[in-house]
Write a structure and sequence with these properties.
Rossmann fold, alpha/beta, 6-stranded parallel β-sheet, 395 residues, binds adenosine monophosphate, 15 strands, elongated
């Protein structure tokens, strides 16, 4: 696996695919700079060696060159975060880009305009990738969030750098963290899968059954399992057409010696609302008109025990509807147990969309071992897929 350490960047131009697809408010202020901050170590390391840096990214889903998706909106913040004035080329290819790239001096940084202003980016167009490639000497991929896409800048471009391509620090860390959970893990290994639906997590569950000793299945997925086992789930979210699949997962888990933990009690509500009436009920006896929106105290006690026993923990998906304060307790408790287990020496990886939001919202970010920056990319890796952006570097 080639990383920055395999190259001398002195007097070289590194062309780096970063993920600067940051959220902006209506005045184009960045509301969360995590993605830029996360790319800084890679950029710093190259500049410190006397190299220069060309940054390429997408922002949003523009249809052609739409001003509101221009990366010039993030130029000032990027300069502040990186601590160097960042130059800007108002197109990622063509004369604007080639002239700016050619003029770049060691220690300087150039940001190219939104890659997705050209349809060729998402189409994985080879000629477009070649144009991008012509701007730099060494290709660095540091964008985990788009590593599952075979786009021009994330994958196709790599073929023009047969020996001069590597992973940036962020992407290398992502790969190492997932590897630490799936392949080089200290046992016992636990996967905690929450979220709303069995259907969106099924491939992940199937793939990691071979890798884990314990699996906690929580959130809205709970009820498909409970109903399949003959329980009464009331109005809880439930995918009837996935009940067979749920039973098959339980059968497979037994065969593979994986212990499955499902909530035994839940906080049930008489409405999908923060101010609904609530009661704690047995998960198999949810009254009609009531729905389970969070894990109950007995479930949490059981989960705490497993979490504290395990040496490797993967967390994907909340235990309840954490966006509403009344149903966030389970998810918060879970975060606390994972933090305690991590302090005890366990390796914990949190990733895939909503659990990352929960971890940030409730302040667990620094108490777990690693928080992944890629939602879809992380899920695909957990599904056992080889991501094209990663494969292109390993090639
Ligand atoms: P996912 O994107 O599949 O990880 O699902 C995350 C969503 O699942 C969050 O928005 C939660 O509010 C939701 N969720 C978690 N538990 C439940 C539940 N018991 N009933 C309905 N939705 C839930």
């Amino acid at each position: 696996m080639k990383t920055l350490n395999d190259f001398d960047f002195k007097n070289k131009k590194a062309i780096i695919r970063v993920d600067f697809n940051v959220p902006l408010d209506e005045n184009f202020n960045i509301t969360d700079t995590t993605r830029i901050v996360s790319a800084k170590p890679t950029i710093d390391a190259i500049l410190a060696q006397g190299g220069s840096v060309i940054l390429m990214s997408h922002l949003g889903r523009p249809k052609g060159a739409e001003e509101k998706y221009s990366l010039k909106h993030i130029l000032k913040s990027t300069s502040e975060i990186l601590g160097v004035p960042v130059k800007f080329a108002d197109d990622c290819v063509g004369e604007a880009a080639t002239t700016a790239a050619a003029a770049l001096q060691p220690g300087e940084v150039l940001l190219l305009e939104n890659l997705r202003f050209h349809a060729e980016e998402e189409a994985g167009d080879v000629a477009f990738a070649k144009e991008l490639a012509s701007l730099g000497d060494i290709y660095v991929n540091d964008a985990f969030g788009t590593a599952h896409r075979a786009h021009a800048s994330t994958t196709i471009i790599a073929q023009f750098f047969p020996t001069a391509k590597c992973f940036g620090k962020l992407l290398a860390k992502e790969i190492e963290s997932i590897d630490k959970v799936l392949n080089n893990s200290e046992r016992p290994v636990l996967a905690i899968l929450g979220g709303s639906k069995v259907s969106s997590k099924i491939t992940v569950i199937e793939n990691i059954l071979d890798k884990v000793d314990h699996m906690i299945i929580g959130g809205g997925m709970t009820f498909t399992f409970v109903k399949a086992l003959g329980g009464k789930v009331g109005n809880s979210i439930c995918e009837d057409d996935k009940m067979e699949l749920a039973l098959e997962i339980l059968r497979l888990a037994k065969e593979k010696g994986v212990q499955i933990h499902i909530p035994v009690d839940v906080i049930a509500a008489d409405d999908f609302s923060n101010t609904a009436n609530t009661q704690i009920v047995d998960v198999r006896e949810i009254p009609d008109g009531w729905e389970g929106l969070d894990a109950g105290p007995k479930s949490l006690e059981a989960f705490e025990k497993v979490i504290m026993e395990c040496k490797t923990i993967l967390w994907n998906g909340p235990l309840g509807v954490f966006e509403m304060e009344s149903f966030a307790k389970g998810t918060i408790a879970l975060g606390n147990y994972i933090a305690a287990s991590t302090a005890n020496g366990a390796f914990s990886l949190v990733g895939g969309g909503d659990s990352v939001a929960a971890v940030k919202q409730f302040g667990f970010e620094d108490k777990v071992s690693y928080v992944s920056t890629g939602g879809g990319a992380m899920l695909e890796m957990l599904e056992g897929k080889v991501l094209p952006g990663i494969a292109a570097i390993l090639d």
